[in-house]
Amino acid sequence: MSNAEDDRVHLTRDHQIELLRQMLRTRRFEEKCAELYTQEKIRGFLHLYIGEEANAVGVITSLSEEDAIVATYREHGHALVRGLPMTEVMAEMYGKASGSSHGRGGSMHIFSAAHRFYGGNAIVGGGLPLAVGLALADKMQGIQRVTCCFFGEGAAAEGEFHEALNLAALWKLPVLFVCENNLYAMGTAVQRSQSNTSIRDKAAAYGIRAEALDGMNVVDVEAAARRAVHFVRRGEGPYLLECQTYRFRAHSMFDPDLYRSKAEIEDWKKRDPILRFQQWSLSAGGVHTRDLQMIEEAIAMELEEAVAFAEAAEWEPIELLERDVTTSEAKRAAS
């Protein structure tokens, strides 16, 4: 059982350093991926998480290793914070066999059963029913775990959103729904597609406890996530967090980003979650300039190792192309 003390964020020096380290790791990884994409080292779609790091860090910090995570196609940060090795994530970005999904998933389908990370999902809203299924399985087996499902506000326009919330509430399932509301579903502003732009209100319509919060403040996110996780783990049903956040980069590397003004982007950058927490930590004396230098140096080394690993990794042999795929010949043989 939890109590009010469990729900508090204890901002010790070590915890402040760890929050900064995880946000900076994600930011630097994404920046490097953008650079590698322009060099055609990474191909296909690439959705960057720059600006939204506080959400992955604040929420995943509040989960246990046994809890499950279902993510979206913008999931690199979730995977890294969850503990997937940066080498494996980078190799997956390259499409190499040493990647976390053996090079078959790429940027949008990072997966690790060992970390109970049930992947990114290229389908908008596609992870919602998967999360409900995982939570239902836990409840039927009497396993006290939380399934955390990340999704964007665009998913709230999909039928899966309403079906998933309805069943989770109906069956009182242990699901933590986390909406990363970055205001734009690809290029469509939420106010242009939703008569009620509050995701929190939509959850309340299903009788699900929900709250909206500043997704650009890692402390606010962690505090809310702790409250939510303890509520769900006690068996009191699902919970929804609407993290109001913003992506600083375009929807994807293919996106010309013409649907919002540069002034709007610059205004949101003033609320950069990393700079915001970093400045507070420095002024409060929790961390020092040398700490930040050491964090950056360690991340730079980790990134260098990850890129070298991906560059040297092998491509999947052509003879394994049909592995894990049911071919028409195999179907005929089975029949």
How would you describe this protein?
The protein has 14 helices and 7 strands. A 5-stranded parallel beta sheet has the order 1-2-3-7-6, sandwiched between helices. Strands 4-5 form a two-stranded antiparallel sheet. It is an alpha/beta fold. α3 (53-60) runs parallel beside α4, α3 (53-60) runs parallel beside α10 and α6 (127-141) packs parallel to α7. The protein has helices at 4-7, 13-38, 53-60, 76-82, 86-94, 127-141, 159-170, 190-193, 199-204, 218-233, 262-269, 273-284, 289-312, 328-334; strands spanning 68-70, 147-152, 175-181, 184-185, 188-189, 209-214, 239-244. The longest helix has 26 residues, at 13-38. It has a single domain, classed as Rossmann fold, CATH 3.40.50.
